[in-house]
Amino acid sequence: MTAKDCTSFQHDLLRFDPTQTREGQNPRQIEPALILCEALSDDVPRTYQVLGLGRGGTSAICAILHSLGIPVAIDWKPGLNWPAYCTYEDTDLNDSLRVLEAMPCPTSADTARLRAAIEKRNAAYSVWGFKTPFASRYQHLIAPLVRNLHVIYVGRDLVAILGREVAYGDWLDLGQWWRRTLQLERMLLWWLSEWTGPLVCVSYERLLKDPERAIRKLSPFLRVSPNEVQLAAACAAVTRPGK
Question: Which domains does the chain have, with CATH numbers?
Fold first, then answer.
């Protein structure tokens, strides 16, 4: 599917009239995952980037990728303050991203360390994935460096995210949290509105409600056909405590 085809598909989706659904369908039923632009063919090297807000479900999506055999958290190093369960952070890759985060206006000239980390993974894997919560401000710098980028956007109820932040004691200033979160979400959605490559959007709440259905919907985008063991492992990874 070409970029033009993807753009046309997204426009058709925006014009979708639920009253015109096929006979027998429930027009109010919302799928847990919407593929807005199909994945490339199986024989094409590709990289899956999981986008979303912090505490917004990116770890759950990475858990699915891991359970279905797609390498993620390739360089994960748990530290003293990390939880006992794997958050699927790629330490080396994320450290290179934090270099950009510390810069007021990062440019492509500042991406040498990130480029080296990505090239290292490309050399080792034809298909791999990583998550980047809070990448909104420099997503435009990441995308050109990644081989055949496939984007998985996970959205979560902002009040639920706030509850997780409060539980972890990360934020004391509620007003500051709302302003920062809305700014990051707006930048991320703006970038997604301009993205014409492979894209799937996942509802975190609907993923939790019916993980098997969500994983089956997501599987064609990942170009995998999970067996029952893999499917059970992916469902368990999504629903385990701490997620």
Answer: 32-239 (3.40.50.300)
